[in-house]
Prior knowledge:
- Its main location: membrane.
- The protein is mostly helical.
- Helix content is 71%, strand content 2%.
- α3 crosses α4.
Amino acid sequence: xxxxxEETRAAAPVDFLQELPSYQSALRRRAAAGGSxxxxxxxxxxxxxxxxxxxxxxxxxxxxxxxxAREYPLSIAEKRRLRDGQQTNTKYLSGWKQWxxxxxxSLKKVLNEVKELSSYLELWRHDIHSIEGKxxxxxxxxxxxLRFLVLLNFIIFILMFSFVTLPSIISKYGVFNSSxxxxxxxxxxxxxxxxxxxxxxGLVYFYTxxxxxxxxxxxxxxxxxFYGYYTIDAAWISMLRYNLPLAYLLATFAYLALSLxxxxxxxxxxxxxxxxxxxxxxxxxxxxxxxxxxxxxxxxNAARLKHRSLQYELQTDLEEERLKQKIADRTMKEKLRIYxxxxxxxxxxxxxxxxxxxxxxxxxxxxxxxxNVSIRHDxxxxxxxxxxxxxxxxxxxTLANFIAPQIFSFLIRFEDYSPAFEIRLTLLRCVxxxxxxxxxxxxxLWSQISYCATDECKACGYNYELYPCWESEVGxxxxxxxxxxxxxxxxxxxxxxxxxxxxxxxxxxxxxxWCGLQEFGISDNxxxxxxxxxxxxxxxxxxxxLPAIATIKYFIIFYIKKISLIHTRKPAARxxxxxxxxxxxxxxxxxxxxxxxxxxxxSIAHIPSSKACGxxxxxxxxxxxxxxxxxxxxxGLQQVLYGVASEAFAVPFFMVICLIMxxxxxxxxxxxxxxEQLREQLVMVSFDPLFCTSKV
Length: 696
């Protein structure tokens, strides 16, 4: 251990770096190292016990800290003597301190037992451990991420059901002597309030129910699944008035805030692990050679795969070093050629994206204009054709999500990037395609909703003829996207992976064996479920029970992917590290959440709410319920809230936040410099053993 004597530390000048917590922690570690050397020199018995007792930290007021003996860096014999000394000292404490120490130990023991018990109740605990043992931590991180989304959607469902759906159902059916109030909208044209849901009446064929189940129309349109069901201004439960419009809006903000906080919390944990692995190439090489093995692996095939992955990582490091040398040796002519080629390829990428966006826009417009057109001669064909027309945007989006990444993966080979940067750039392009496609779909819907060519339409603020309850229409589109995404995932496993597995197993043809089994790509599967989660975040405002469908969907997908991994696919030959993959998954999920804020913000604050359905039919926009509620508060509270929302409060608050941010940035930079100094000392110790003795 490297440490400084007490005299040297006392004589050293105190500067800013020495005031940092990390520097103080280093001093305590050095003092502990010095104490350990003194302990080795001390004879056993009373002298060793006194040394151990002297090293115990003391709390304020002279009270000895009640740390267990096992937490001290001592030998077994000294820990026993320390424990006996602690028990002896306890007799001389006052009754209050004895009770405090006993209750603290009991509480800590209970918490540990509860934590241990909760680990056994963890969802899919055994399955995920089994996957980790057979395929390593990289694939295990995908299934852990899937479990996180199941829990997140379940909590969002509980939130929306408790504060939105349950009060509506209770008030409509008169449970607990409850009732509801419908206030006719004021200063609204009568034609804007006309809305007749397309519910099925009379004798209905079975395939009509199936079509309604897949498209969200018919009998589903009038259920609590969609926005139009909640046409209530207030609910009276016993003697309490429940403001449903305000609860609907606050529940929306709550699930978005909950998702944001939870993702940031998990991202910070992954970021800490990612920083540990953000070392230079020499340290990376040492870590791969001496500490790269995954001891969770028990399956022989997975062990061979881990060998190949370590070999691939070492080859990738060598290839990146070769590319760095090649980039350094490039002439001006070669630089001009490669930059021109990259510009040309990026133009092609932009053209592909533009084609995808335009196709989605045209498909959405065509679907919205022709979804109710029927073929008069054949009713059965009419239902199938109408279903295809309704699902046309979802089909086009799925095709774009499949074709565009294939083109990007082909073009990236000609851009002459390093292997690691190739993977990151391709993933970023794929993320942009998947999330931007949802944005284009919503933009296409809004362009149709906001299009008004007559004065009657302008009086309503939206296209009331085609979209009398436009929020339910948007909810149906999000519902169809989620259902179709699940159908595609299931169809790929049943009609692509299983037949391919049978061909590879029972057919000895060279082309079939050359193709082999499909790899289980972690990044592609993660982007798949992040795309579905973004749909859920956007659609929950328009379909409050959509998180329940997402929970069931991801629950089934877990077992589908598990069966696919074990029986029909093979692990990727280029696996990614669990720590970096977890952080990457959460960052992409955070991007999806931030992008979900944009359409929701526009829908809540900008687009006029439907005047024929929903809890906000009496307001111009959904956000208008907030100032309307504030006007019911006492005058003093109104002035406080208006002051907080004013520029006089916002500007100083923003400046204080900036100062705090700059402080933490400076603190982080100082910590980084301390870490670099400690690393330099470690390097000096490794190269010059005399450096250690010179400090003693």
